[in-house]
Amino acid sequence: MEEDAAARLKELLAACRSEKLGLIQVLQRVQEEFGYISKDMMEIISKRMHVPRSRVFGVATFYSQFRLMARGRHLVQVCDGTACHIKGSEEIMSLFEQEYGMRPGSASEDLSFTYEVVHCLGSCSLAPVVMVDGRVLGKVTQQQMKDIIEGFRRE
């Protein structure tokens, strides 16, 4: 963890201590400030709050609101519900794994986007469906997905 980030984290934890916040509230504040909670951050939280590392890690991994990896600027969610699966969502998902070396839940190296697989976006008539930053895109092809990704990289 960079010195600057560690110093910011320690300042944040001091403020949380003065407010007498509990572990969940502290984790929420840390994620709000940094966008995610790394293992290094959990270690510092553990030491500063005098809470076992296992408890900090347990809470951070139990609640789905907490992210343990950095997120990209854009969120790409590929639907793999029944209709989307039948209509070709596998081709879109394979693009992320084969072309970009990404697994679901990971961010691109340049942090331009995060890739997730979801089980239904409720737009089955538009299958295969991808949601980009909350915007639903229907009948998405592998080439269209490539174009979207390259657009992120040009920003």
Offer a quick outline of the entry:
The chain contains 7 helices and 5 strands; from the N terminus they run ααααβααββββα.
Please characterize this protein's 3D structure.
- There is one protein chain.
- This protein has helices at 3-18, 23-34, 39-49, 53-62, 82-86, 89-99, 142-154, and strands at 74-79, 106-107, 113-118, 130-132, 135-137.
- The mean pLDDT is 93.
- Helix content is 50%, strand content 13%.
- α1 (3-18) packs antiparallel against α2 and α3 packs across α4 (53-62).
- It has 155 residues and is an alpha+beta fold.
- The longest helix has 16 residues, at 3-18.
- The chain folds into two domains: 3-62; 74-154, Glutaredoxin (3-Layer(aba) Sandwich).
- It has a five-stranded mixed β-sheet with strand order 2-3-1-4-5, with helices on one face.
Give the topology.
Blueprint: H1 3-18, H2 23-34, H3 39-49, H4 53-62, E1 74-79, H5 82-86, H6 89-99, E2 106-107, E3 113-118, E4 130-132, E5 135-137, H7 142-154
Parallel strand pairs: 1-3
Antiparallel strand pairs: 1-4, 2-3, 4-5
Helix pairs in contact: 1-2, 1-3, 3-4
Structural class: alpha+beta
The percentage of residues in β strands lies in: 5-15%
Determine the number of helices (DSSP H or I, runs of at least 4 residues): 7
CATH topology of the largest domain: Glutaredoxin
Alpha-carbon distance between the two ends: 27 Å
State mean pLDDT (0 to 100 scale): 93
Main beta-sheet strand count, sense and barrel state: 5 strands, mixed
* Assigned CATH class of the largest domain: Alpha Beta
Give the overall form. Answer: elongated
